[in-house]
Amino acid sequence: MDNTATHNTPYGSWLSPISARQVASAAPAIDAPLIDNGSDGDDLYWLEARPEESGRSAIVRLDANGKKTDVLPAPFSARSRVHEYGGTPYIVVAGILFFCEQSDQRIYRLDTQSKEATPEAISPAHQNLRFADFCFDSQHQRLICVAEQASDSESEPRNFIAALSINAPHEFIELHSGADFYAFPRLSPRGSKLSWISWQHPQMPWQGSELWLAELTGEGLLSSPEKIAGGCDESIFQPQWSPAGDLYFVSDRSEWWNIYRYIDTGEIENNVQAICPQPVEFATPLWTLGMSTYGFCESDNIVACYTENGCWHLALITEETQQLKAIDLPFTQMSALISKGNRVWFIGASPSQSGCLVELNTCTGQHKIVHQFAALPIDEGNYSQPQAITYPTSDNEESHGFYYPPCNTAYSHAITAEKPPLLVMCHGGPTGATSTGFNLKIQFWTSRGFAVFDVNYRGSTGYGKAYRQALDGAWGIKDVDDVVAGAQHLIDQSLADPERILIRGGSAGGYTVLAALAFHDLFKAGASYYGIGDLETLARDTHKFESRYLDTLVGPYPAEKALYQQRSPINHIEQLNCPVVFFQGLDDKVVPPQQAEAMVASLDKKGLKVKYVPFKGEGHGFRQAENTERALLEELQFYSDVFGFSLPSPTSLKENA
After folding, report:
1. Termini Cα distance of the chain
2. What's the rounded Cα separation, in Å, for the pair 423 and 642?
3. Three-state secondary-structure class, residue 638
4. Selection from 57, 166, 186 nearest residue 108 by Cα
5. Domain count across the chain
6. Pairing relationship of beta strands 302-308 and 142-149 according to DSSP bridges
7. Peptide bond before 202: cis, by omega within 30 degrees of 0?
8. Quick one: which of 93, 527, 634, 638 has the most CB atoms within 10 Å?
9. How far apart are CA 171 and CA 174, in angstroms?
10. 357 and 396 housed in the same domain
11. Do 454 and 397 share a domain, yes or no?
12. Does 441 lie in the same domain as 308?
């Protein structure tokens, strides 16, 4: 393209080399790597969520010879719905794959060594059971996992720890129940003890959870369960046994999620030891079951990923020195860490690298990418790089985020005195965090001449317990203050056009969008993806896992009904005076469609420019490529209509970039 002819092309109107279809069909998401549990071999497995296969979750194997194969035949899809968000839905034992099938949530068995084998259901039928987060009990030849049983009535599902024999007739028993939620059932190396975490309403696992330990009897039942750590004000994450038989876990008792070891002293107090305490976070919010941030290598040394100031790092903690020895790696986002011997695998990403499967040798410190997807045929000069920004916000506090300037090699950034439109992005949760890993959705906007500000508002993780808890009782206030203050900060720095400030977000981020539009007048348009307009409706209608989440974020309901009404955008339509587009999955159980539909009806009645884009067959978050593509194009067209961007032709849903 001739740059001289494009210097005066306005921001937002740039012809991008990144199409919506490319974003929608971007490399499948990789997750949950694991090593075969019952084999001495090194076969490596992982999940791939494939947008082009209607969001099917495939299971892939990399064998010792470097051969990659799909081991789960289509249309089978490994996905759990425990807590609605699910978690690790499979385990492999001596070449036998056991997985939770998305369609009926039953556990299936598949011999991965046989070309003729087909998946066979082995868990009870017609009992509304769901499963996730497996471990293998070799002594009793069974799987141990978290189970959830949905009710046909209006009562909440029941959660418990279950065991399922891998041999016919596949005996299914309940090992422990009584808590509202369970996670991380883990067997000691000798199979004589089982640890797990549990928590009760109204706590979320990142607010307060308990670590339990029990002996296993000869019959495989639990004996004398004992709580050994945790409580209402202490969050426990990833209990894990070392090869030597010591129990480790992550706790935020020190104001930071740090690693601890349990010491059986026979006393209730002083029975844990901090391992290399640091003002960094060795955990992440337990939105999905089976998450992992650390593992063990030779000599019981620990290899762990941790986050500091919004970026992730990897380090080795030696048993002798208990010092944090950082390992230099080109990744700023790391997750799903597993280990065996002196090798570690994890999902890594960076601002220029999408999620890939990485293998690290802890002896040499050398790493290699063992699986990644082909990069798009696009000059990397078109990719905007994040700039970490800390800025002042309300209550004399600070907030954080990542600023992405407009970036496209075909256009000059020094065009006249025009400032770019700014798109403020709000992550979900709200207990969560944005990532600096390569995000093609962000590049979709920056390559068109938009600036993007990805906000880690107060309440986000990665900045310590105090920052995470800053949103307690203040959801809809402090998060909104932070997105407004962040946008204003960029305006003051001459990095954004004050007349073209937009905001977008999904789920809890969608609520922040609607609240910012209703209670402030800085933003000129917004996009809500399966967002929340009515907090009362959310408190009454959402699923079990989040049904008491708002007790902490807002206040107990219905005791604080007036507060819920006060903070619900649906009750303040008279204050919302700018265009909004809504995107909604019609099968959403977390934020039902009625939320978006009520907002759309109210705004339409007021005469504002509003658009509603529903999607059949989609739940909370879009998995199908064609729907992701359509949503992006509809959003771009909506902004074009609002601000008069002259989009490159064609501008219809058949965009050709």
Report:
1. 13
2. 14
3. helix
4. 166
5. 2
6. unpaired
7. yes
8. 527
9. 10
10. no
11. yes
12. no
Instruction: Using the 3D structure, point to which of 336, 371, 406 is the last residue of a domain.
Output: 371
Residue 245 token pair? 């038989």
Contact assessment for residue 343 and residue 359, using Cβ atoms and an 8 Å cutoff: yes
DSSP 8-state class, residue 78: B
Residue 534 near residue 554, CB atoms below 8 Å: no
| 174/311 Cα distance (integer angstroms) | 40
User: What is the pTM assigned to this prediction?
Assistant: 0.92
Is the preceding omega at residue 592 within 30 degrees of 0, hence cis? no
Q: Are strands 501-506 and 422-426 parallel, antiparallel or unpaired?
A: parallel
Distance CA 626, CA 641 (A): 22
Q: pLDDT tens-digit profile of 560-615? A: 999 999 999 999 999 999 999 999 999 988 888 999 999 999 999 999 999 999 99
The distance of Cα 226 from the centroid of its chain, to the nearest Å, equals: 31
What are the CA-CA distances from residue 28 to residues 87, 339, 368, 409, 511 (Å)? 17, 23, 20, 27, 28
Cis upstream peptide for 650 (omega within 30°): yes
Q: Would you state the torsion angle of the CA atoms of residues 348, 463, 310, 477, taken in this order, to the nearest 10 degrees?
A: 120
533-555: pLDDT as tens digits: 999 998 988 889 999 999 999 99
Task: Please give the structure tokens belonging to residue 341.
Answer: 């011997």
Which residue do the tokens 């809809």 mark?
A: 476
Statement to judge: residues 392 and 467 lie in one domain: yes
399 and 356 in a common domain: no
Cα–Cα distances (Å) from 478 to 90, 398, 424, 475, 485, in that order, read 39, 11, 16, 6, 10
- The parent domain of residue 320 ranges over 296-371
Q: Is the peptide bond before 579 cis (omega within 30 degrees of 0)?
A: no
Exposure of 374 in the CB half-sphere (CA atoms within 13 A): 5
> What's the CA gap between 159 and 176, in Å, rounded?
9
Contact 639, 12 (CB under 8 A): yes
Question: Which helix (H) or strand (E) element contains residue 44?
Answer: strand 44-50
For residue 594 the two structure tokens come to 């009625």
**What is the distance between the alpha carbons of residues 80 and 437, in angstroms, rounded to a whole number?**
25
User: Which amino acid, 158?
Assistant: R
Alpha-carbon span 410 to 15, nearest angstrom: 8
Cα 445 to Cα 451: distance, rounded to the nearest angstrom: 7
Residue 457 has pLDDT above 90, yes or no: yes
Same domain, 615 and 535: yes
At 116, is the secondary structure helix, strand, or coil?
Answer: coil
Q: Which of 276, 274, 250, 278 is nearest to 263 (CA)?
A: 274
- Helices and strands per DSSP (H, E), number in the chain: 10, 36
Torsion angle (degrees, nearest 10) of CA 241, 233, 396, 460 = 40
**Residue 324: other Cβ atoms inside 10 A:** 18
Q: Which amino acid is at 540?
A: R
Residue among 315, 252, 197, 289 at smallest CA distance from 462: 252
Q: Is the pLDDT of residue 647 over 70?
A: yes
State the Cα–Cα distance between residues 588 and 603, nearest whole angstrom: 22
309 found inside a domain: yes
pLDDT per residue over 232-255, tens digit each? Answer: 999 999 999 999 999 999 999 999
Going 72 to 75 to 79 to 80, the CA torsion angle's sign is negative
Question: At 94, which helix (H) or strand (E)?
Answer: none
363 and 490, same domain (yes or no):
no
Q: Are residues 595 and 474 in the same domain?
A: yes
CB 94 within 8 Å of CB 109: no
25-39, 124-138, 344-358, 367-381: least confidently modelled range: 25-39
**Tokens coding 524:** 């000129």
pLDDT above 50 (res 2): no
Domain boundary among 339, 371, 403: 371
405 assigned to some structural domain: yes
- Residues in a beta bridge with 108: 99, 121
